[in-house]
Amino acid sequence: MEYKKFGNKIVVRLDRGEEIVESIKKLCTENDIKLGRVSGIGAADKITVGLFHTETKKYMSKQLNGDHEITNLSGNISRMNDEVYLHLHITICDEDYNAFGGHLNSAYISGTGELIVDVLEGEVGREFDENIGLNLFKF
Which of 75, 77, 95, 104 could covalently link to 36 via disulfide, CB atoms 3.0 to 4.6 Å apart? Predict the structure, then answer.
């Protein structure tokens, strides 16, 4: 991972073999980012996406292997219990141009990843909501 800062924005390049979620967490830790927004594109070959079932309050996960274009990666950065907390979604397409998406659990870069991180002033925490079953923003 290499990156360059421009005011409150950070331009990031991820290289082949790097895992997206862990790389963003590392960037946030190194730069003490408490609140922000992530967007990106690229290519990945091992992606795990999740879908939250509101009735059961459980995530289902699916792994997708092979060449995929990351057509959109977006999400936010916050903190929970003083740790970096990422909430990321991804849309990818396969070689037949079928699109798949969901909550990003993990993805390994196969070509490159190009991300922009917008760092926001302030801090927003997270708190588990038993009624919903998710960690929600805590203002």
Answer: 77
Do the beta carbons of residue 50 and residue 105 sit within 8 Å? yes
Furthest-apart CA pair in the chain: how many Å? 43
What pLDDT sits at residue 98?
97
Model confidence at 91, in pLDDT bands (50, 70, 90)?
Answer: very high
Q: How much is the pLDDT for 12?
A: 98
Strand partners, 107: 47
What distances in angstroms separate CA 20 from CA 14, 15, 43, 112, one per listed residue? 8, 10, 11, 10
The identity of residue 45, as a single letter, is: D
Q: Residues 36, 43: contact at Cβ < 8 Å?
A: no
Number of neighbours of residue 44 by Cβ within 10 angstroms: 29
| Buried-state track 83-99, b at ≥16 Cβ within 10 A, e below 16 | ebbbbbbbbbeeeeeee
